[in-house]
Write a structure and sequence with these properties.
The protein is of the alpha+beta class. The protein has a single domain, classed as Sufe protein. Chain: A. Helix content is about 40%, strand content about 20%. The protein is built from four helices and four strands; from the N terminus they run αβββαααβ. The protein has a four-stranded mixed beta sheet, covered by helices on one side. Helix 2 packs across helix 4. It is globular. The N and C termini lie far apart (about 35 Å).
Length: about 150
């Protein structure tokens, strides 16, 4: 299966059946991500225990790409150390940089399926919004934007 088909399959699957969707009863970190241009709004909720992400959820109103990216991110980062999540945020930003010719970064595993978004530059902000919110939450900020 080529990257384009894998990308479409990943987006469709995670949009139809988002993992970790909904506001949890408790959490230790939270941030809102906002992309005012397209109207995406995502809230990321993280529980950190002993410097490890033990739970991550998201909620909000967003497009299929943003929802799929949030779903993939929450699955992928649960169980990772906080410093590891921050490094993976940097890797994801590098992967999604439209000026970059990189189609995959080993550390990102299945998240590399989102690389197809780069073919649609206007949608990159939708894919990265939840990652910016996650990073904001971990560094103690309440909000993040992709503007």
């Amino acid at each position: 299966m080529d990257i384009k088909q894998l990308y479409k399959k990943t987006i469709l699957e995670h949009n139809r059946n988002p993992r970790n969707y909904g506001t949890p009863e408790s959490f230790t970190h939270k941030a809102e991500g906002l992309n005012a241009i397209c109207g995406d709004q995502v809230f990321v909720f993280i529980t950190v225990e002993d410097d490890v992400i033990t739970q991550m959820n998201f909620d909000g109103e967003s497009c299929a790409i943003s929802t799929a990216s949030s779903s993939l991110m929450t699955e992928f980062l649960t169980g990772k150390r906080v410093d590891e999540a921050k490094a993976l945020f940097a890797d994801f930003c590098q992967l999604m940089d439209r000026k970059s010719s990189i189609d995959s970064i080993e550390s990102l595993g299945e998240v590399n399926n989102m690389a197809g978004v780069k073919k649609f530059p206007a949608r990159i902000k939708s894919a990265t919004l939840c990652w910016h919110a996650m990073n904001a939450a971990l560094v103690g900020n309440d909000t993040a934007t992709t503007e």
